Here is the input.
Amino acid sequence: MKNNKNFLSQVAIFAHLDDAEMESVAQTFKERRYKRDEIIFLEEDRDPCMYVVREGRVKVSRILPDGRETILSFHEAGEYFGEMSLIDGKAASVTATAIVPTTALLINPRDFSLLLENPKVNRVLLKVLCTRCRDAWAQISVLTFHPADARIRAALDHLGQKRGIKTHRGTRINLHLTHRELAEMAGMSRETVTRVLGQLQGQQVLAVDEGHFLISDPGRLVEPLSPLRASK
Here is the structure.
């Protein structure tokens, strides 16, 4: 329990709680482990919890009417998800899957309702929900681009803004991302993504740094998108 308390105190939503408050919050969480590719919850699940990733990596996705999967977000250690169903009481609108062996801490609806009575938690949660709305709008924008090159550039630009770390070599996307995962984010085939990524690397716009995408020249990455945006 002490380890959970120390870990949760580093999570943004709880960072402003005092020691006594943190002690009380930590006692409400239960630990659960998931195998690689194990589903945590499905769309329309009516047994909501909020999950904090302690170790591992989770993808949040939706299945489109044509059967294709679209990845909406990833969550790694210290990040949380599932809170929206606890707030509005509706069934899950997404599917969450552990894509590597994952340990998560869960809080149930009753304890979450008590947690919301703390104004410190409410302030942070409101900011997070606003950020997630903006991320959703950005991803919708990505999917409106029709040429494959433009859509993948827009997806990389979005990831760079959301997960990017500035380095002397460019913007490093701080997320291990496979070609298939990028394809599922951009709504493209894996083969198309691999082809476009190869072109971007050949143009020295993009590089790979220890398994991470590195946007070598952010300006050149988004330059072709400007006329497309202006025409909308």
User: Anything to note?
Assistant: The chain has a mean pLDDT of 85. The longest strand covers residues 69-76.
